[in-house]
Amino acid sequence: MIIESHDPSNPVVLCLHGGPGMPQFFMNDTYPTGLERDFTMFWWEQRGAGMSYSRNIPDDSMTLSQMIADTIEVADYLRERFGQDRIILLGHSWGSFLGIQVAEAAPDRFIAYVGMAQVSHQLRSEVLAHDLMMSAYEALGNTRMVSGLAAAPVTMQDGLSPEYMPWLPS
């Protein structure tokens, strides 16, 4: 957990990073946001990501429902610590998917939700990306990439193939 603020009485922003597993605070040195001037920024490295990583985290605890519960618990901690009834929830990419689930589950804890690179239908996005890559590589005549993508289908009916997402169990 990393907190940045010029004035801790400013509105609290709970940042949900992308990934899953891609904390973003480290990019602040290269691409500073300056948000800490107007907000109390709370950069939280979610369960299993960044400084929260541990080999001892049980695989069965890495679920969406657990991530939602974790986020609500962190939000409650921030609300109490900074004496704010409601805080701002900001989600980027995967964090935007998590954020809308959290905002729906606990709307009383948030004054606003902000989504960046909002995920709304991930499977449809993957299908479109796969189709676009196939077309682009076909136009370039890159038969190696075309055959690789053809062997790694992504469809609305069958979802993501293990070949397309190598980190998924087969």
UniProtKB/TrEMBL annotation:
Keyword Hydrolase on entry: yes
One Pfam short name: Abhydrolase_1
SUPFAM superfamilies reported in the protein's UniProt record: alpha/beta-Hydrolases
Stored InterPro entries: AB_hydrolase_1, AB_hydrolase_fold, Peptidase_S33
Family: Belongs to the peptidase S33 family.
Any one GO molecular-function label of the UniProt entry: peptidase activity
Record-level GO BP terms: proteolysis
Source organism per UniProt: Gymnodinialimonas phycosphaerae
Every AB hydrolase-1 domain range: 11-124
Keywords from the UniProt entry: Hydrolase
Protein name: Alpha/beta hydrolase
